[in-house]
Structure formats: C-alpha cells, structure tokens
C-alpha cells in the first residue's frame, strides 16, 4: 500500500489526460497537445503509483519558465523573488483521502526548497473550495489575493508558501547542488526535431 512518486513517462500521457479530464470542475480540462507541451517543458511532472496503479499527477514550473497560464503570470507580477508554481495536481477519485495529495506536496516541496524561496498555487473558488483551502492551509500556504482567469471566468484564490530551507541551501551550495539522486531535477525529453525549412 505504499505510494511511489516518480517522473512521468511518455507512454503514460493518455492515462494522465484521462485523470485530468475526469477530475471535475476543480481543474481545467486539457487536450493531448497541451499535455504533451507540459511533458516537454514542465520542470516538475511526476506521477504517483499506489499498488502499481496510476493514482495521480502533479505538474510544476519554475518562475523563469515560459509557461503561459494567467495564474502563473499573476504570480510573476505580484512576487519580487523567484518561485515554484504548481500548475495542477490531480488525484484519482478512488485514491482521494488516502495520502496521495500529501505525498505529492511533500515531494514537490522537497524539490522546490532546494531551488526557490517560495512555492505557489491556486484554488478555484467557485466549486466548493473549503476542503482544498484547508488542505493547503495545513501545509502553510496563505492567500496573497484573488485572480479571475480570462476566457474561463473562474475565480481563484492565489496561495503562496515561504520555503524556509531555501536560504540555507542557497548560502551553502550557491546554486550547485550535490549530485545525489533525490536532489536531481527532471530529465526532460529532447525537443522534437523540426523539418528543414520550417
């Protein structure tokens, strides 16, 4: 009954897409093209396995990425320092309440605090947000403000959390982390080759 968090594999993208689009109103739908773009560009894209089955996923971007989310842009405008942005987390309905979300947030924080002073995310306000706000509050997130997302007319509570270990890691290692497995970043796929003349 253990939970394993690991980098996503390309052949799992169809399953990730189905999880996303069956998650309900608390998450925006995706199409295969946009998910593949996330696969190629996301700094953090991990899945959870429980009992050998896909139980969820989490996608995150560093503040210097070219991510085009309006919520990501909101954080870039509001925050003076760099940050790690959780774009989306989805846990399979049959696995909710079983610790998968907490395992993801622990893993994402372990990744982020080596690289960023803050972690950010949003919770949609219009679809019964109390449980999600309580979950994030229990991890130390606080609301910085609210943002209404254009084109989808969804209001989001914009949350941030200070990562207390970042200053020590930055002072001690100066941006050059030791080469140990748990501190390594995601090995992103090589970009697709463009045909000549395009």
UniProtKB/TrEMBL annotation:
- Using the record, list the residue span of the signal peptide; answer none if the entry has no such feature: none
Q: Name one GO molecular function term.
A: acyltransferase activity, transferring groups other than amino-acyl groups
Q: Does the keyword RNA-binding apply?
A: no
List, alphabetically, the PROSITE patterns matched. GNAT
Question: Which residues belong to any copy of the N-acetyltransferase domain?
Answer: 3-161
Tell me the keywords, alphabetical order.
Transferase
Q: Under what name is this protein listed? A: Acetyltransferase
This protein's species is Stenotrophomonas chelatiphaga
Q: What is the lineage of its organism?
A: Bacteria, Pseudomonadati, Pseudomonadota, Gammaproteobacteria, Lysobacterales
């Amino acid at each position: 009954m253990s939970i394993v968090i690991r980098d996503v594999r390309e052949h799992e993208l169809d399953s990730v897409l189905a999880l996303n689009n069956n998650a309900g109103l608390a998450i925006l739908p995706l199409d295969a093209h946009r998910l593949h773009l996330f696969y190629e560009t996301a700094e953090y894209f991990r899945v959870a396995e429980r009992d050998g089955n896909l139980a969820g996923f989490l996608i995150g971007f560093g503040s210097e990425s070219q991510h085009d989310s309006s919520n990501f842009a909101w954080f870039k405008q509001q925050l003076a320092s760099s940050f790690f942005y959780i774009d989306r987390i989805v846990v399979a309905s049959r696995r909710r309440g079983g610790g998968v979300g907490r395992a993801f947030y622990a893993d994402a924080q372990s990744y982020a605090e080596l690289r960023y002073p803050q972690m950010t995310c949003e919770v949609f306000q219009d679809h019964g947000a109390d449980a999600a706000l309580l979950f994030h509050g229990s991890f130390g997130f606080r609301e910085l403000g609210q943002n209404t997302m254009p084109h989808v007319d969804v209001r989001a509570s914009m949350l941030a959390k200070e990562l207390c270990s970042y200053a020590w890691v930055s002072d001690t290692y100066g941006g050059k982390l030791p080469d140990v497995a748990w501190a390594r970043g995601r090995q992103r796929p090589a970009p697709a080759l463009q045909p000549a003349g395009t």
